[in-house]
Amino acid sequence: MKPDKQEKSKDLCPKCGAPLGEITTTKSGKKLQRCSTGNWNPETRQIDGCDYVKWLPVEPETLDEKCPKCGAPLLMTTTRFGKKMKKCSTSTWDPKTRTAGGCDYVEWIKGTREELDEDCPKCGSKLILMTTATGKKLKKCSTSTWDPKTRTAGGCDFVEWQKT
Ligand SMILES: [Zn+2]
Ligand SMILES: [Zn+2]
Ligand SMILES: [Zn+2]
């Protein structure tokens, strides 16, 4: 549960002074508040009344996990490109000096792998279901390997991308 901020009710439009309307969430998960005197007119495809829109920062989610560096709680944040990462809640960013402060622990979410009760059609080993960092899913053979030094794949090369 997120704490309900009181500024919700007392926020006034800086353009016309009317109270701001309800917080709405866009398809991409961004939050915004429109001026309560503004109305979207589907016929003219324009805003009738005041067109002020306040974009709200996406609040990071506090995790029930501790930073391995300093022990503070970790936050789950999503970048503009939809990638997820965990970062330390004590980390700060000073836009004036363009320097980061606090703890610098960051952990990119690389996706998950799950063992399936399915056999590889190529070699008969078990398949695993991988979810990439961008949310794509693929089945691949559990015998497949990747050598980062030589950048070559080994083992069975069966891969099946999942259509979503
Ligand atoms: Zn307004
Ligand atoms: Zn930390
Ligand atoms: Zn295989």
What does this structure look like?
- There is one protein chain.
- This protein is mainly beta and 164 residues long.
- It has three domains: 10-56, no CATH class; 61-108, no CATH class; 111-161, no CATH class.
- 2% of the residues lie in helices and 47% in strands.
- The protein has one helix spanning 7-10; strands at 20-25, 31-35, 39-41, 46-48, 53-56, 61-66, 73-78, 84-88, 92-94, 99-101, 106-108, 111-119, 126-132, 137-141, 145-147, 152-154, 159-161.
- The strands form six sheets. A four-stranded antiparallel sheet has the order 6-7-8-11, with no helix packed on it. The protein has a four-stranded antiparallel sheet with strand order 12-13-14-17, with no helix packed on it.
- Strand 7 and strand 8 form a beta hairpin.
- It starts with 6 loop residues before the first helix and ends with a strand.
- The relative contact order is 0.10.
- Bound molecules: zinc ion (ZN) (3 copies).
- One zinc ion is lined by residues 13, 15-16, 18, 35, 37, 50, 52.
Topology:
Layout: H1 7-10, E1 20-25, E2 31-35, E3 39-41, E4 46-48, E5 53-56, E6 61-66, E7 73-78, E8 84-88, E9 92-94, E10 99-101, E11 106-108, E12 111-119, E13 126-132, E14 137-141, E15 145-147, E16 152-154, E17 159-161
Antiparallel strand pairs: 1-2, 2-5, 3-4, 6-7, 7-8, 8-11, 9-10, 12-13, 13-14, 14-17, 15-16
This protein binds zinc ion (ZN) (3 copies).
